[in-house]
Amino acid sequence: MGDDDARRFDVQRVYVPEEQTRLGRWLAYMRDNPLFTIGVMLLSIFLGLAVIGPYFVGDPLRTDIAAMYSPPSTEHWFGTDEYGRDIFARSVHAARLDLSIGIVIALVAMIIGSAVGVVSGYFGGRVDEMVMRLTDILLAFPGFVLALIIVAALDESILNVVIAVAAAYVPYFIRLTRAQALVEREKEYADAARLAGNGPFRTAFRHVMPNSLRPALVSATLVTGWAVLTVAGLAFLSVGIQPPRAEWGVMVGEGAGDIITGEWWTSLFPGGMIVLAVMAFHFIGDDLTGTNT
To answer: Which residues of 12-29 are buried (b: 16+ CB within 10 A; e: fewer)?
Structure first.
C-alpha cells in the first residue's frame, strides 16, 4: 500500500459520519437496556394513539342502545358499555386526554419546583430553611391524598385537576433541584459569573439553574407516569374529571360494577391502558435515573 493510499484510508476512517455513530450508539444502548426499549416502544404507540388515533375512531359519546354490552368483536374491538358506546373509541380519545394532562402536570411541577429549588439551594440561610420546612410539610401528605384534598376544595374541572396534581408533585422537584444547586453554586463558573458583575438572581437562574436541571428532567418521566395514575385514580373516585368525558379512570369507575354481571371488558381494557402507559413512563424513567446516578 502506497503513502497516498494509506492517507486516503486514514481519512475515510477518521471522518465517519456523525449521524451513523449516533445511531449506532443509540441502537447499542437500546439493545443493552431491554426495559428502556420496551418503554420507548409502548410510549411511541400511545403517543401515536393520542395524536392521530381520534381521527380514525368514532365519536366516544355516541350511544347505541341496541348494541349495549356487546362483547369484543371485529365491529367493536373492546366491546361496548351499558349505553352502547364503543370502548375502543373512548379509550383512544382518553389516551389524548390522559397523556396530555400527565405531560402538562409534569412540566408545570418541574418548572415551579425547579425554580423554587434553585432559589432555596443558591441563597441558603433563612430562605432555604423556610422553603425546606414548607416542603417537608407537603411531603408529609402522600401525593394522591394531597391532590384529592386540593381538588375537593376546588371546582371539578380539568384545569383544577392539573393544578392540584402538579402542586402535589412540586415538592419532589424542589428537593432534587435544591440538592444539585448546592453543588453547582460552589463551582468556578458560578464564581466567575458573580465576579463578572451578575446579580444573585441572574447568577442563580441564568447560570446555576440550567446546570441543575438534569435530575429534574430525568425524574419528569417518572412524574408523568405518576400523574397519569393519580388523575385516573381521582376520576375513579368521581373527583375531578366527570362522566361522560372519555377518560381512563372514568371508564374504569363506570365499568367496575359490570364485572360482577360478567361484562369484564368495560373496565379491563381502559384499566389495561392505564397500566401499560404508566409502565412505559416508568421503564424509561427508571433506566434514565440509573444512568443519571
So the answer is: eeeeeeeeeeeeeeeeee
Give the angle subtended at the CA of 179 by the CAs of 176 and 183, to the nearest 5°: 135
Return d(Cα 214, Cα 203) in angstroms, integer.
18
Residue 288, helix vs strand vs coil:
helix
- Rounded to the nearest 5 degrees, what angle is found at the Cα of 233, between the Cα atoms of 71 and 136? 165
Residue 229: all three cell numbers together: 395514575
Single-letter amino acid, residue 31: R
Burial of 2 (0-12, 13-18, 19+ CB in 10 A): exposed
Residue 86 three-state SS: strand
* pTM exceeding the 0.90 threshold for the entire prediction: no
What CATH number labels 35-292? 1.10.3720.10
Kindly state the DSSP code that residue 71 receives in the 8-state scheme: P
Q: Rounded to whole angstroms, how far apart are CA atoms 190 and 184?
A: 7
What's the gap between Cα 139 and its chain centre? 20
Indicate the domain borders of the chain.
1-32, 35-292
What's the first-to-final CA gap in the chain, in angstroms?
A: 48
> Under a CB-based contact definition with an 8 Å cutoff, are residues 246 and 93 in contact?
yes
Summarised one tens digit per residue, pLDDT across range 8-65 is 544 444 444 555 577 777 778 778 788 889 999 999 999 999 999 999 998 999 998 9
Omega before 72 cis (within 30°)? no
Contact at 8 Å (CB) between 82 and 141? no
Instruction: Please state, in angstroms and rounded to a whole number, the distance separating the CA atoms of residues 278 and 268.
Output: 15
DSSP-derived secondary structure letter, 80: B
